[in-house]
């Protein structure tokens, strides 16, 4: 007797909300920017040209947080995982930390020499990646700027992501590089070879330890799964489109990917079969911007150029009790502050 097939989960192919910007507010069509992030308190941070904005997804009200002026622009934003602090990277290589409740800048860091395009928090440790080919670890609570500087990349850092346990960092670069770093070590633990274009899209599985998914640029178009302990590529799939973002579902073995050249779509996959659950269309430019909602169900996607919109989709099932896991750093940062 054959087993009954599991019913296919239906995902609404249309966004439940869309935010279209006027000509004065432009999302840049730039592969090396990360200017959209969704906080645990349901506030969306947006980097639009020289300004950072806060958009309340509950009330649909938007407020300007800061204006960098004519000399610079916002190149990345990232919320602290447990609070109201927002990190802002700039095109000239600076890093700012803002208290968004008080609307006040609390820290200014000047250490990178070029664009800060990617950020990742690990507890109170903030890791930054730049076009100057360096990765910096810092604790914004410390009076000193940097704890560690990593220099193994040969080109711009495109992606950074700490794992859920806080003991491994994945970094992707424009020279087709993908490194795994243990803790705050100055040398990479593993180099994962295989991608043939820039590696920007990275996501760690919340269901299996040491399982990383990565995506390559338009000359590669591969989604690859890795065991980071032994560097094995577990599987590789040609998705025939530039991979801009990847995100595991918090509750199921599902992955959402966003794409650029040439499809400009959003796809929800079943893992490990990589069967398509849904393909979401609507953007007409590269879907470069992405964030997961604090409830773990919804995503926001963004595209620049003539599209210039953010779109909100419900793609994942509700987490148990709708509680978001809080990530803690796996090592004590205070001991590293000199």
Short overview:
It contains no helices and 28 strands.
Key terms for this structure?
single chain, 338 residues, mainly beta, Methylamine Dehydrogenase, Chain H, four-stranded antiparallel sheet, 0% helix, 46% strand, disordered C terminus
The mean pLDDT is 92
Largest sheet: 4 strands, antiparallel
Question: Would you tell me the structural class of the helices and strands?
Answer: mainly beta
Identify low-pLDDT runs: 322-338
- The CATH C-level name of the domain at 33-151 is Mainly Beta
What is the total tally of β strands? 28
Per CATH, which architecture of the domain at 33-151?
7 Propeller
Strand content: over 45%
CATH topology (fold) name of the domain at 33-151: Methylamine Dehydrogenase, Chain H
Q: Strand order, biggest sheet?
A: 1-28-27-26
CATH superfamily of the domain at 33-151: YVTN repeat-like/Quinoprotein amine dehydrogenase
Using only C-alpha atoms, the radius of gyration works out to 19 Å
Q: What's the N-to-C terminus distance?
A: 67 Å
Helix percent band: under 10%
The general outline is: globular
């Amino acid at each position: 007797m054959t087993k009954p097939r599991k019913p296919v989960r239906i995902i609404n192919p249309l966004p439940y909300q869309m935010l279209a910007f006027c000509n004065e507010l432009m999302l840049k069509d730039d592969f090396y920017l990360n200017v959209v992030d969704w906080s645990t308190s349901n506030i969306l941070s947006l980097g639009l040209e020289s300004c950072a904005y806060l958009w309340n997804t509950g009330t649909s009200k938007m407020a300007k947080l800061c204006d960098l002026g004519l000399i610079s622009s916002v190149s990345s934003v990232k919320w602290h995982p447990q609070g109201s602090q927002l990190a802002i990277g700039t095109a000239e290589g600076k890093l700012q930390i803002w208290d968004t409740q008080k609307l006040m800048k609390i820290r200014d860091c000047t250490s990178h020499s070029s664009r800060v395009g990617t950020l990742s928090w690990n507890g109170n440790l903030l890791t930054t990646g730049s076009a100057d080919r360096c990765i910096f670890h810092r604790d914004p609570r410390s009076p000193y700027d940097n704890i560690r500087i990593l220099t193994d990349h040969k080109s711009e850092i495109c992606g950074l992501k700490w794992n859920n346990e806080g003991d491994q960092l994945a970094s992707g670069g424009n020279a087709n590089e993908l490194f795994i770093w243990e803790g705050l070590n100055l040398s990479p633990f593993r180099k994962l070879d295989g991608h043939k274009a820039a590696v920007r899209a990275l996501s760690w599985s919340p269901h299996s330890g040491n399982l990383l998914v990565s995506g390559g640029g338009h000359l590669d178009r591969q989604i690859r799964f890795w065991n980071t302990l032994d560097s094995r590529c577990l599987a590789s799939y040609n998705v025939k489109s530039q991979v801009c973002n990847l995100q595991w579902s918090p509750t199921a073995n599902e992955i959402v990917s966003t794409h650029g050249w040439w499809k400009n779509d959003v796809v929800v996959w079943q893992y490990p079969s990589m069967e398509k659950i849904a393909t979401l269309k609507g953007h007409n430019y590269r879907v470069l911007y992405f964030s997961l909602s604090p409830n773990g169900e919804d995503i926001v996607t963004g595209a620049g150029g003539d599209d210039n919109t953010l779109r909100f989709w419900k793609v994942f099932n509700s987490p148990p009790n709708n509680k978001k896991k809080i990530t803690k750093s796996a090592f004590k940062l205070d001991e590293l502050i000199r």
